[in-house]
Amino acid sequence: MTSRPIRVLMAKPGLDGHDVGVKVVCRALMDAGMEVIYTGLRSSPAAIAAAAADEDPDVVGLSVLSGAHLPLAAKVVDELAKLQVDGVLLLAGGNIPAQDHDALRQLGFGGIFPTGSPLDEIVGYIEQEVPR
Amino acid sequence: MSSREPDRVEWESGLEVKVVYGPEDVTGSGGDAGIGRPGEYPFTRGIHPSMYRSRPFTMRQYSGFGTAAETHERFLFLIEQGNTGLNVAFDLPTQCGLDSDDPMAEGEVGRVGMAVDSLADMEEAFADIPLNEITVSLTINGAAVPILAMYFAMARKRDYDLATLRGNSQNDILKEFIGRGTWIFPVEASIKLVGDTIEYCAQNAPRYSPVSVCGYHIRESGATPAQEMAYGLAIARAYLDHSLERGLDANRVARGLTFNFDVFGNLWEQVCKFRAGRRLWAKILKEQYGVTDPKAMHMRMIAGGGGGGLTIEQPENNIMRGAYYALASALSGTQTMALCSYDEAYTIPTEHAAKLSLRTMQLLVHEVGLADTVDPLAGSYFIETMTNEMEAEMVRLMSKLDAEGGIVAAVAEGRIQAEVNRQAYERERRIAGGAVKKVGVNIYREEEAERAVAMHPYRREEADAQLDRLRAIRAGRDAAAVATALDELRAAAGEGRNVMPAAIDAVEAYATVGEVCAALRDVFGTYNEPILF
User: Most buried among A30, B41, B183, B494, by the most CB within 10 A?
Assistant: First the structure.
C-alpha cells in the first residue's frame, strides 16, 4: 500500500460567495493529514474538471449554498467525464435539502454533507471510502 | 450550596467577565467620563437625544425574488405590512456583474434575489414606489457602479431631484474580499470605484449614503465581535482616507457612511460592542480626521440578528434566537433593524418566516417597552466597564492592523481572510467538543428525521423569461448610443476620472450590468483571489 496522503480537490462552482464552510472543511481535512487543493470562488465546472485532471485527486468536493447545486453538480460530472477523470470520490456540501440527495447520488456523489455536518463525519467518510 | 469557584466566563472577543461588578471596575477600566448623554459626543448612549421615544428603529427585511415583477409585488406587500424601508436582494449574476445570458449565470438567474440586466428591470421593480418617501437599501457591492447608476438614472427619468433621495447602497467592497465574495475588480481599483460613488453622491445626492460598511459579513466569516467592529472601522477609515486624497471634505464623506453589523452570541457582548464602537468611531473622526459636524460623527447603523447564530437543527429555536438578537439590537441603539428568519439557515426565507421576523421587531416596540427610554443599560457597572474594555480591545486590534501594514494590504494578501477562517474552524471544533454550547446541536439534541424543507422554488421559466427580456432590450435599444456610452465609460475609467456620470449615461441608454462591468474590467482587470490557509 502506498503512503501517499489522500488528495482532495475542493471547489466552489458557480457564483456563490459563501466560502466559510468550504474553507473550514479544507482545514479539517488538512488537520487529518490530507493534501487539499482549494480552487477559490467562482470556478466554472470546466475549470474544476481541468484542475482535477491536473491534480489527480482521490476526492473532489463541491460546496454550494446558493441552491444551484443540482445543475452545477451535473455540469461538473459532465466536464469530468469529458476529461476522462474517473475513479474519484465525489462529495457535495452546503445548503442541500434532503429532497435533493437522491438526485445527487444518481449523479455519482457518494457523500452529501449539508450545512451543519460534523467535520469528523466528513473526514471519517473520506478515510473510509478512499482505497488505501 | 456548593462552595466551588464559579467557572471562568470569557466572551468571544477574549474579555473575561467577573462574577460581580461595582463602581471600582468602571473606574479601573477607564472611568465614566465617556458615557455622556444621548445625542452628544461621543455618542456612547446613542446618536439621538430621545432615540426610540421619537422614532422607533426602522424595520427593514432583506427581500427580492426572481424577476422585477415579482420583486415589485413583494415590495408592495412589505410596505402594506408596515415596513418603512426596502432592502433589495439581487441575484448572484447581477451581484457579480454578469448578464443573465452569461454562461456562468446558468442556474443562478433570479435564484437568490432579483435579476437585473438593464434599467428596465429596475424601473419595473420600483414602479409606483415613491423614491423620496421609502428608504431603499441596495445590497450591491462589486456591481455597485451599474446598479447605483441605474437607481439614479431611474430617479432622474421620474423627475426626482437626486438631492431628495434617501437610502443607501451596501457598496463595501473591502468586506467582500473577506467574506461574501461578490468582488469583481482588483482591490485598489475597487476602492477607487467606491470613491467614485462617494464623490458622486457628495456632489449630487447628499442625503443618499453610498457606502454601508459591513462588520456583519466579517463576523459571519469568523471574526469575534471586537474584530467585527475594529475591522469595520478600519475599512471605513480606508474609504475616508481615499476620499480625502481626492480632495473631498471629511465632514461630508463621513455623513455618507453608514454601518451594518451582526448580532448573535452573547447579549451583553453585543451591547458593549455597539456602545464602544459608536464612541470609538466618533473619537476617531474628531481626533484623527478633524471632523466638526456632530452628525458626521454619528455611527448610523443597521444591526440585527445574523445567520451565524442560527442552526439547522430544531430550526424553530431560531425564532427565539431571533427575538433575543432583536432585543440586543434594540438595547444597542440601532437605527435600522433586520432580522434573519428562522428558516434562513437552509433557504431563502418564506413569506411566513419573514413575517414572523417583522412581528418579532414590532413586539419589541409595541408590547415590551423597548422604546420607553434611551439606552436603558447605561450606568450599569457591568455594562460600562465592559464597554470601556471593548473599546480598548478595538483600539488594540486597530493598532495591530496598522502596524502590520493596514487593512487594505491585509485584505489584498488574504491575511484577514485566513485569520477569521482559522477562528471559524476553531469555533466549529469547540462546538463539536462541547466547549461552545449550542442548544439543539450539542446540548438538548434530538434525533431529527431528515426533513424535506420548503425551499424557495427555482423556476426555470422565469429565468427564460428574463433572458427573453434581455434579448428584447438589446434588440430595441440604440446600439450606436450604447457603444458610444460604453466607450466614454472606458475612457473615464482609463483616465482616472469619476466613472459615475458615464455609467449613468450608459445605463440610461440601456447598457446592461454585464456590459458596464465588462467595460470596467477592460480597464481595471479582475481580482485574483489569494488562497491562504
Answer: B183
